[in-house]
Amino acid sequence: MNQRPLAGITVADFTWLGAGSYTTRMLADFGADVIKIESGARLDSLRDARPFQGGVRGVNRSGYFADRNASKRSITLNLKTGEGCALARQLVRCSDVVANNFTPGTMEKFALGYDAVRAFRPDIVYIAMSMHGQAGPQAQYLGYGLTIGAVTGLHHLCGLPDQEPAGTGTNFPDHVPNPAHAAFAILAALRHRRRTGQGQLIDMAQIEPTIALLGPAVLDYTANGHVAGRVGNQQIAGAPHGVYPCRGDDRWIALSATGQPAWAALRTVLADPALDQDLRFADVAARWQHRAALDAALARSTAHHDAHELARRLQQHGVAAGPVQDAADVLLRDAQLQARQHWAYLDHPEMGRTVYGTLPLRMSRTPTGPLRPAPLLGQHSDEILREKLDLSDDDIAALRSRGVLQ
Questions:
Q1: For residue 34, which phi and psi values (nearest 5 degrees)?
Q2: For domain 241-332, which CATH number applies: 3.10.20.30, 3.40.50.1240, 3.30.1540.10, 3.30.499.10?
Q3: What beta strand segments (E) does 28-184 contain?
Q4: Per residue of the chain (406 residues), what is the pLDDT tens digit?
């Protein structure tokens, strides 16, 4: 009952930045021993990414890095040295999973590509999650979440009509579709190995999970020859559906009341005669036709209400609604997240007591969630070398003196 689902699984984690690091973070929260293989000479860029604890910059003080790397252990290896590469291969030899999100060919430079690894660890589960996959005319293209959102068509759909593509406000592919698909693939491959003894290469192109989000737009073009564009918060053929101002500075509510019962409930809660008497809002078709006027009328009405209280009352009347919360609301004032104990507070060696998001699920028979705070750079180097490779303190000191552990 106290053993985590992936207890006993070791992951050699060569990932960096967002999607790869979040993939292996999920495995670590499920109990895998995720060994993050880093270099002080070439840092994971997230270690130098804002926000920094207390506003003080440092390789161990990035909140972004901490969120993506909780529950892991860190070892620093200089892979530009033969000894560093040899140690990396030894760690891979005693691992179940190898993960990287480099451009194709990078791992091969260190003799750590899939073919090289399976030669000495044939049952390895090896995931390579580059932007475009391992082969094809654009396989060598570089990219980040912003780029992925652009080339997949996601950015084309995000924003207001007749304005430039706005994107999703964050590198959405890094946070949801790519790590979720990658973690699922790893679990499937581990299950296959358990049943057959066979390892395999998972060639994941990070553009493809994001494309999977665009089904309606693809079908619209396939069936109708129509290229969908930016519609802001609108929902096709249904109104009202949007975000409306509330009392206070930059406070808003999101609501959807496109059907007649929901529309009637919304009018009851708002008790605004202007909404009751305007024939342009009488039925579904009329509200869609006059949606600009409807949005303006609703904005005038909701502006007098507190967002949280109005959302509560609308929910009681069966209307889908929620306050537009900022980071402080989500962290400190969201009663549902607090009831589910979504936030975990862990003592970090340099940043002190810091907050981490837990996995968005609860399992009835096995624990999940962060085991330890994000590691300091190379925090566990000696521990890992003693435990996994059976090296002595003198061996480790000699490696460090030769610049191998940096």
A1: -95, 115
A2: 3.30.1540.10
A3: 33-38, 73-76, 97-100, 125-128
A4: 579 999 999 999 999 999 999 999 999 999 999 999 999 999 999 999 999 999 999 999 999 999 999 999 999 999 999 999 999 999 999 999 999 999 999 999 999 999 999 999 999 999 999 999 999 999 999 888 889 999 999 999 999 998 999 888 788 899 899 999 999 999 999 999 999 999 999 999 999 999 988 999 999 999 999 999 999 999 877 999 999 999 999 999 999 999 999 999 999 999 999 999 999 999 999 999 999 999 999 999 999 999 999 999 999 999 999 999 999 999 999 999 999 999 999 999 999 999 999 999 999 999 999 999 999 999 999 999 999 999 999 999 999 999 999 9
pTM of the entire predicted model: 0.94
Query: What whole-number distance in Å separates Cα of residue 343 and Cα of residue 332?
Result: 10
Nearest to 348 by CA among 75, 48, 63: 63
The dihedrals phi and psi of 132, each to the nearest 5 degrees, come to: -115, 5
From 44, 67, 174, 295, active-site residue: 174
**Spelled out in words, what is the top-level CATH class assigned to the domain 10-212+340-401?**
alpha beta
The domain spans of the chain are 10-212+340-401, 241-332
Which long-range contacts (C-beta less than 8 Å, at least 24 apart) are formed by 110-114? 110/79, 110/85, 111/85, 112/14, 112/85, 112/88, 114/201
Peptide bond into 240 cis (omega under 30): yes
- Is 174 considered catalytic here? yes
> What b-and-e string marks burial along 297-334, b requiring 16 or more CB atoms within 10 Å of the CB?
bbeebbeebebbebbebbeebebebbbbbeeeeeeeeb
